[in-house]
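Posting this for the archive.
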Amino acid sequence: MAQFDGKTYDCPFDCFLAVLKGKWRTDLLLALADHPSHFRELQRTLTGISAKVLTENLRGLERNHLVERQEQDDPAGMVEYRLSSEGEQLIQVMEQINHWVGRWLA
């Protein structure tokens, strides 16, 4: 059994799909795979995402240990988001699936 967002899944692959479910989740993970980013930078990168939706997605990914939130030591109180080690492992799986789909659909 696997758990994500407070739900239990009998099939680990169903849990994997739940991790990626949502309009912005994969784009957000891929943006953070490029480099750690501040909130405003993510909002510029993900054209069309509202601050509320970005916040909800970041909090969910952080709660599930895929993203880490780090407060910067500066007067502006900037926050940087980065993939956790679990998030980096997920990106590797996503890249393998992307490669497989590319070969399968070619």
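The mean pLDDT is 92. The chain has one domain: 23-105.
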